[in-house]
Amino acid sequence: MSTKKAAAVALVAALGVTTLAACGSDKADTAGEGTKSKTVTLVSHDSFNASKEVLAEFTEQTGYTVKVLKSGDAGEAVNKEILTKGSPQGDVFFGIDNTLLSRGLDNGLFEPYEAKGLDRIPAELQLDKAKHRVTPIDSGDICVNYDKKYFADKKLAPPQTFDDLAKPAYKDLLVVENPERSSPGLGFLLGTAAQYGDDGWQAYWKKLKDNGVKTVDSWELAYNQEFSGSAGGKKAKGDRPLVVSYASSPPVEVLYSEPQLKEAPTGVSTGTCFRQTEFAGLLNGAKNPEGGKALIDFLISKKFQEDMPLQMFVNPVVKDAALPELFTKHGEVIAKPQTMAPEKITEKREQWIQTWSSLVLK
Amino acid sequence: MALPVAFFAVFFAWPVVSIVGRGVRTDDGAWQFGRIGETLSRPDILDVLWFTVWQAAASTALTLLVALPGAYVFARFAFPGKAVLRAVVTVPFVLPTVMVGTAFLALVGRGGLFDELWGVRLDTSVWAILLAHMFFNYAVVVRTVGGLWAQLDPRQEEAARVLGASRWQAWRRVTLPALAPSVASAALMVFLFTFTSFGVVQVLGGSAYSTMEAEIYRQTARLLDLPTAAVLTLVQFAAVGAILAVHARTVRKRESALKLVPAELTARRPRGTGQWALLGGVLLSVTLLILLPLGVLVERSFSTPDGYGLDYYRALGSVDEGGTFLVPPMEAIGNSLEYALVATAVALLIGGLAAAALTRRAGRLVRGFDALLMLPLGVSAVTVGFGFLITLDEPPLDLRASWILVPLAQALVGVPFVVRTMLPVLRAVDARLREAAAVLGASPLKAWREVDLPMVWRALLIAAGFAFAVSLGEFGATVFIARPDNPTLPVAVARLLGRPGELNYGQAMALSTILMAVCAAALLLLERLRTERTSGEF
Questions:
Q1: Which family does it belong to (chain B) (predicted)?
Q2: What is the ipTM of this complex?
């Protein structure tokens, strides 16, 4: 009996150890056991991207290697940091936006650090200017996108403003995301609240509902299934020519087309936008604060800022960063987006979402 | 026994207890049991509880209805392509839920096949959820019930007929009692899987439907409402515990001595119109329920703007301009295989030791441990994931940023399969054979080599194969910890689906097809290893 067991253990253990060792060897460089002080860990949401060359340049400049830890979507990533407060998963957090900023600041997630080169960032984006707990890195606009072909075929002008969306001419055309489950959905709701005020937005949504607005759970569903203008939506025979997405979505449609399109198939309703700004901050309890500070400086360097648009489809925040041609050619600069103070968003978010649910979903 | 216990204590019990603990206590450490009653009387929470139970019961009933004839056909009929088909119906069981959601949207969603043909759309309806659950769990019934059915000696029923029983009486008196525990066991497993359904409900449920598992995720990850999440976790825990306790009883009953014969002897070509019609009906249901959704994924992976082609597969080999990943998506396959191998090794080690320990004694304590090993199947991956985050954060166990966390989480799910496969085989090794060998002069080592090993190694390989396939498809826990420089296949699929543009969608379909092919190949290999002696549950 015991021999049998011993042999079984030996067999299984041998199997386990060899495989572990085999995998361990080629993972050692990224696991970073011995290179701890030389590694700086960036915690972010799933949408984070940077090109290899740019990250390599950071290593060249500072000697630190960046390790990126994607921690779920934006809300989930922030909540995970709150749960692990004081014993963070990394050194720098990137990707807390103005809709979540107060929650992070109130929970004391970040160590103050005044980044080098802040003067190149417009003051209105520096939402924590007095304390420098977070540094703005990028901004983007959540806007209604329209299917150019649909409106051309119908000889109808695409809607441009929030008011337009509630007009009878655009009945049954718009699909939006549930703000409770999707960040563009939340952005759009906040945009309407900023436009019509605490008292007026509910009446506006009643009009939208009467005008046949459709709600789905995620941006993926809205954009790739319901929207008639996107590549995915065309394939899925989406029949809604209006969708809540980003101002940068048209260039992305061009970028991922095969063969490359000459003109974006979609356009942006410029009067329906809500501005999202994303921030980075040094995590409270970071193991490598020096590396973290260097990384934050690097995030607002010209090099990184010019890499960002084609990696994450957002706009740079520093004045000296040039936009890629794809953006200047197919993108839209939003002159007057809606905005809202982070404290107000934190205070009202849950209540507004609940009101919205009972108003629109029921 | 010590190693499996330690493994479960550190990587399962501790994280889960910690995260639940955060919820049931206030910041200054006082217990807040009042929250339980408060939470459980909220109408929205009650809706979730009701829907969870209701859809699980409905899914289980429908799965049994469709899969039991399948179990019979696979058990009793010999027909060409049976082994391949048996492997194929098992593929869904190990596929990641994101993919299944995508497949069903492509089928019953907007612009899906049914929409094009008949204008039928089932997305955001409860039918899409029920169909997907049937798709997932068909194999559980076919393998659990069919596996036993194939080995029941048909002569017993014939004997009853000779003695004057009608066909129905013979079936009811002889076959049904032998089969009933395995039907109950399969039903309970299906109920357990659908009761804790997460991915399917996330993708197909829309805003209208939420199971407890999906609600725990929402409360924790979105709203950071830990007290509500903790109450739900406790309720789910109690329910899963109860299901497993009943399951353990039925399993024990099933293992009571039955006269089993090799499966090859009981299967024969169908005879007469009735039997051919039954076979045809089962093949049709398998085609509609399983082959069609899988086929749609494959079709879409080849469907490029200018006709069918390999464009999306080719694109997998290069880093794209926009950089969804830092590496070509193709590398995700290599990562997945590596992770799955390590997870399999861990699951075999832990599961093998546990099964060996469970074989020797069947005391109350040990039986309790048996049921405990099944718990990871029923406890929220979200809870475990968040538990990992807040517990494994200090040296020597600061594993949160380590790659090993992925295979460890996957192994947790793999262990129950290893135990369930190994246990019946280990128990079935007749001690008298070993004694006989000893009497005939064999040394204990030789007796083990000649008697135990031939029976055990196949079971071990099958267990390994299952743990491997399950690890390959694991998504819930992996998505918490996988890193961008080495995403796993299901994580890569999810990320590609989350981006606009035709090329990303096509690549997601192509990767899904590859994952499907790998799973199918692994399962087909297992079919070849299966013999009459390896009558494990899967």
A1: Belongs to the binding-protein-dependent transport system permease family.
A2: 0.72
